[in-house]
Amino acid sequence: ASVVPSLSLGLSLSSPHLPPGSLDAFMRCMLVSRISRHVLAEHHLALSKSLGTNSLNHPEDPHVGIIYTALNLRDSIDKRVALLHGRPHDIVDEIGESVPNRGWPEVIVNGHVDTKFSYIREHLEYIIFELLKNAITGTGLDHRSSPNLPPIRATIVLGENDVRVRISDQGGGLSSARIKSPSDLFSFSHIRNATRMDDAWLGALRSASSRGVKATENTPMAD
């Protein structure tokens, strides 16, 4: 329970002392290794728990271990939207103003809305949660003086060999004077995000790493 906040704390403290390339290489290796072990362990436990039963015959969620064989993509998006709408403090804390008083931006799901495919549901919904949270935050910031917030669109596209989801918003994009190259957007380094070195942020991470938290959508690493 303390691994995620401890990792984030170490990342913050080491960021000023390591070149971004070296830090990124280490973090990618660390996270891929951690996620792969977690998947193997969870899949083994789920298979062991279902021993003697046929989970593929489950009418609503057929699955093998943690892999859902008919995952309904629109349902997963709707669940994440409902979760965000039920936790307004997550967005208010980032924007610094009361978005719910103006209402939430509508999330319109279009495209191949009946798409079902095989995937690990928890991983997919985690990604969708973060993308939607960023879209809502950006929309609220870019339209803070507007009485109404423009909608966010989640477009599902079913290809011959893949499934894609595009989250479109009117939040102003990612342009910033601190972003000098596209690789900066995907870097773990805090060199271009000085707020991560604030005493309040580091104190919160130290507190979280000492008491332990579960790796959910609300952990520091998720941000």
TrEMBL record:
Its main location: mitochondrion. InterPro entries: AK/P_DHK_N_sf, BCDHK/PDK_N, BCKD/PDK, HATPase_C_sf. Keywords: ATP-binding, Kinase, Mitochondrion, Nucleotide-binding, Transferase. GO terms for biological process: regulation of glucose metabolic process. GO terms for molecular function: ATP binding; pyruvate dehydrogenase (acetyl-transferring) kinase activity. It is found in: Mitochondrion matrix. The keyword NAD does not apply. Residues 2-67 form the Branched-chain alpha-ketoacid dehydrogenase kinase/Pyruvate dehydrogenase kinase N-terminal domain. Its EC number is 2.7.11.-. It is an enzyme of class 2 (transferase). It holds the Pfam family BCDHK_Adom3. Transmembrane segments: none annotated. One of its GO terms (cellular component) is mitochondrial matrix. PANTHER family: [PYRUVATE DEHYDROGENASE (ACETYL-TRANSFERRING)] KINASE 2, MITOCHONDRIAL, PYRUVATE DEHYDROGENASE KINASE. Belongs to the PDK/BCKDK protein kinase family. This is Protein-serine/threonine kinase. It comes from Suillus fuscotomentosus.
